[in-house]
Amino acid sequence: MSTEKRPLVGMTLDEMTAFVAELGEPKFRAKQLFQWVYEKWAKSFDEMTNLPAGFRAKLQEHALIRLLEEETRQQAAPTETAKYLFRLTDGQKVESVLMRHSYGNAVCVTTQVGCRMGCTFCASTFGGLVRNLTAGEIVDQIITMSRDLPAGERVGSVVLMGSGEPMENYDECLKAIRLMHEPDGLNIGYRHITISTSGLVEGMRRLAEEDIPITLALSLHAPNDELRTSLMPINRKYSVREVLDAAIDYGEKTGRRVTYEYLLIEGVNDNPDQALELAGHLKGSLAHVNLIPMNPVAERPEYKRPSKERVTRFRDLLEENGVTATIRREMGGDIDAACGQLRNRVARTRGATRS
Ligand code: SAH
Known about the structure:
This protein is of the alpha/beta class. It has 2 domains: 6-64, DNA polymerase, domain 1 (Orthogonal Bundle); 68-354, TIM Barrel. Helix content is 34%, strand content 21%. It has a 10-stranded mixed beta sheet with strand order 3-4-5-6-9-10-11-12-13-14, covered by helices on one side. Helix 4 (135-146) packs parallel to helix 5, helix 6 (201-208) packs parallel to helix 8 and helix 9 (272-282) runs parallel beside helix 10 (308-320). The longest helix is centred in the last third of the chain and has 15 residues, at 240-254. The protein starts with 5 loop residues before the first strand and ends with a helix. Bound molecules: S-adenosyl-L-homocysteine (SAH). Residues 117, 119, 121-122, 161, 165, 196-198, 219, 261, 263, 292, 294-295, 297, 338-339 line the site of S-adenosyl-L-homocysteine.
């Protein structure tokens, strides 16, 4: 048996069963262990009181139960949205958000350290891609934040909308999604899981074949190729028409309404004619537009959030032209909640202290 400790979080029940057998324990222990990890969110092996002391000692020696440690947290009040910065076992840092709504708790998780998509408005991409997260690191974000909820509360929905491009880390993201859904674990319904992509067509098409009813969110942000390419370099590879076709096909194949995310940047993509052009594309398809007033990022001072009037006008134009649209409730603007901002700010201040 290898000397390196094996992370339990990220293992499927089958993988855990094989691991338990490797440790020389009866197979039925795997299910108990699975529940300790994913359902009861145990922080240490000592808590696993229905496991024999000998087994716990073996786990202590050969297994890891936590993949992340809280580095900092920004939270206005204990009952409000919290943004976490976590440190991974190799020292890399990722951000996650816990949102407390009247209808339940939602989390936003990160799928990669950094990102290589290069979207001009996004703080996550300025340092490029460092590495993919494992399924365990993705799921552990949910588990770690769940421990901070009041007793009896759980996370009801998840968006893979933190830093990173999930379609570039497809297999680990899908494994994480299946683990989130396990009834003996986090037990989050597929319908309450959303994966957000900048529009990698192969991944979108592959996802449509998985036969899991999760929501697809496409970050569109512009109604035509010229503008979209200037904001999102990935548009050189997949045109607006191609990503729209893949999203519309996803809706038809799965019966799930597709979310189109549309970031609003003042004077760049928030004009009335752009709303009409967008409506022209989406009218008649199973679509919902989520308008996101730009969260200003330090690295791009020229991109500004539009006034409330301009945002409402854009929404009204979509609605009047047959497309359902909502404005994302402003959350976390004061706590660096735009992807990657907390990580960058901490890196900047730490850098400054060192020099
Ligand atoms: N790579 C995936 C998922 C991560 S980004 C994607 O592109 O969808 C999640 C969402 O946050 C995307 O819609 C992204 O465009 C948006 N976003 C990025 N920077 C932002 C900012 N400064 N303000 C508001 N939303 C932002």
